[in-house]
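Hi all, posting the design record for the shared folder.

TITLE: backbone redesign
STEP: 1 of 1
STRUCTURE INPUT:
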């Protein structure tokens, strides 16, 4: 708008046919393009450009947090999600151009905590008071790009950034990372935990590689062993031969 590039956010409803649980795969449906229904915009005129939007991990899907420039905004979706009301907010304070790059909403602690990244710092916030609960200064040597919480293990948080590293933190003691991965040779843009097996971590980087790492030592099952289908079928074959 007006020769400026604005980054905005909105809430949309997907067509009924595409909702989970429907038996048709997308290929089976007719070639008619389904249109999304616009429910509401998240008004950011007063707060700046949106960096990211997060649904509350558990709950009824009525709460959203957005990060806009240096603001954390908690939205309440009302009237069948057709209206977003700003229920609380907080702002980053300090010197220089403070802007959020990304954030994640923790599925633990009754969904009362989020983690944000700005510049080289990772911060934890309590969504009830909108106050900081921890701060990891210089979590990475350069810009922090992405964060993800371990879905099965409280307090564990992964971060990645332009220093080519992926780091794992225990948010109760943020003096040192629990573990550091240095597999990539360029900026690491994304880090994601596998939701079933939290020892599996996927990272994507501008070194043109996606790496799947097996971090058993800091997983929720450090002594567990993932059995894959091949192993199972091998065992069954052996049993058959023995019989």
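Okay, here is what came back for every position:
SEQUENCE:
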């Amino acid at each position: 708008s007006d020769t400026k590039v604005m980054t905005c956010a909105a809430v949309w409803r997907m067509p009924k046919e595409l909702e989970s649980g429907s038996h048709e795969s997308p290929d089976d449906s007719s070639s008619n393009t389904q249109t999304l229904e616009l429910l509401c915009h998240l008004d950011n005129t007063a707060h700046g450009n949106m960096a990211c939007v997060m649904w509350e991990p558990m709950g009824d899907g009525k709460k959203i947090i957005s990060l806009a420039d240096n603001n954390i905004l908690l939205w309440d979706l009302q009237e069948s999600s057709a209206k977003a009301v700003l229920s609380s907010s907080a702002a980053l304070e300090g010197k220089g151009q403070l802007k959020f790059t990304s954030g994640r909403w923790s599925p633990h602690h009754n969904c009362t905590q989020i983690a944000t990244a700005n510049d080289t710092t990772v911060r934890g916030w309590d969504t009830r008071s909108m106050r900081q609960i921890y701060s990891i200064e210089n979590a990475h040597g350069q810009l922090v790009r992405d964060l993800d919480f371990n879905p099965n293990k409280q307090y564990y948080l992964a971060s990645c950034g332009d220093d080519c590293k992926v780091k794992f933190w225990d948010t109760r003691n943020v003096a040192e990372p629990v573990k550091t991965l240095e597999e990539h040779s360029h900026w690491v843009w994304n880090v994601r935990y596998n939701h079933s097996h939290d020892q599996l971590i996927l990272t994507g980087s501008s070194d043109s590689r996606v790496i799947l790492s097996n971090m058993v030592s800091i997983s929720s099952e450090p002594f567990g062993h993932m059995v894959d289908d091949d192993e199972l079928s091998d065992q069954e074959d052996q049993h058959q031969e023995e019989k």
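COMMENT: The longest strand covers residues 83-91.
Let me know if anyone wants the other runs.
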